[in-house]
Amino acid sequence: MIKLEEVTPYNWRLDLKVAKHQKSYVSDTMKLLARAYAYREYRSKAVVVYNDEVPVGMALYYDCEELQAYDFSQLFIDERYQGNGYGYEATERILKLLKDDGKYNKVILCYIEGNQAAFSLYKKCGFMLTGDRDGDEIIMELSF
Q1: What is the Cα–Cα distance from 85 to 64, expressed in whole angstroms?
Q2: In what order do the strands lie in the sheet with 54-64?
Q3: What region, left, alpha or beta, does residue 74 occupy, with left being phi > 0 and alpha being psi -120 to 50 degrees?
Q4: pLDDT tens, 23-79?
Q5: Fewest C-beta atoms under 10 Å: which of 6, 43, 59, 82?
Q6: Residues 43-71, buried b or exposed e (16+ Cβ, 10 A)?
Q7: Pairing relation of β-strands 69-77 and 106-112?
Q8: pTM score > 0.90 for this model?
Q9: How would you class 37 by CB atoms within 10 Å of its CB: exposed for 0-12, middle for 13-18, buried for 19 or more?
C-alpha cells in the first residue's frame, strides 16, 4: 500500500535514484530538497513515497500563486521499484490531497520532452496538454 510521508530529518538521506537513461528527465534527491526549501514560502511539500515501509520514491508540490494553481513539481520512483504502479498511486494520492486542500482548482506540471513514461502517467491521471512549453518542458494541467 502506497503512503506519503513528509520529508523529515530522519528520512531525507534515502538512496533513491532513477535509471541512468532517465537522469535528464528528473532532478535528483538533493535538487528536489533544494527546490522544496526554495519554495517553502509557497507551502512546498517534499514527500517520500513508501510502499508499506519501503521507500520507493519522492515527490514535491507547492502553491503557484501566479497561475492560481498547485505546481506538481517533481515525482520519481527509484529504478528498483518502477513498473509496479507506484507512480500512479502516488500521483493519485497527491492529487487527492491537493483537491481536499481546496486553495486552487487546478494543478500544473511540466515534463521533459521525450519522457514518454511521464506523459503517459500524467495523461492517465487526467492531465491535459496546454499547448504551452517552457524550453524543453511541456506543460500539462488538471482541473478539479
Answers
A1: 28
A2: 2-6, 45-51, 54-64, 69-77, 106-112, 137-143, 128-134
A3: beta
A4: 999 988 999 999 999 999 999 999 999 999 999 999 999 999 999 999 999 999 999
A5: 6
A6: ebbbbbbbbeeebbbbbbbbbbeeeebbb
A7: parallel
A8: yes
A9: exposed
Answer yes or no: are the C-beta atoms of 74 and 109 closer than 8 Å. no
Q: How many residues does the chain have?
A: 144
Cell readout for 109 is 506540471
The torsion angle over the Cα atoms of residues 121, 122, 123 and 125, rounded to 10 degrees, is 90
Q: What is the 3-state secondary structure (H, E, C) of 44-75?
A: CEEEEEEECCEEEEEEEEEEEHHHCEEEEEEE
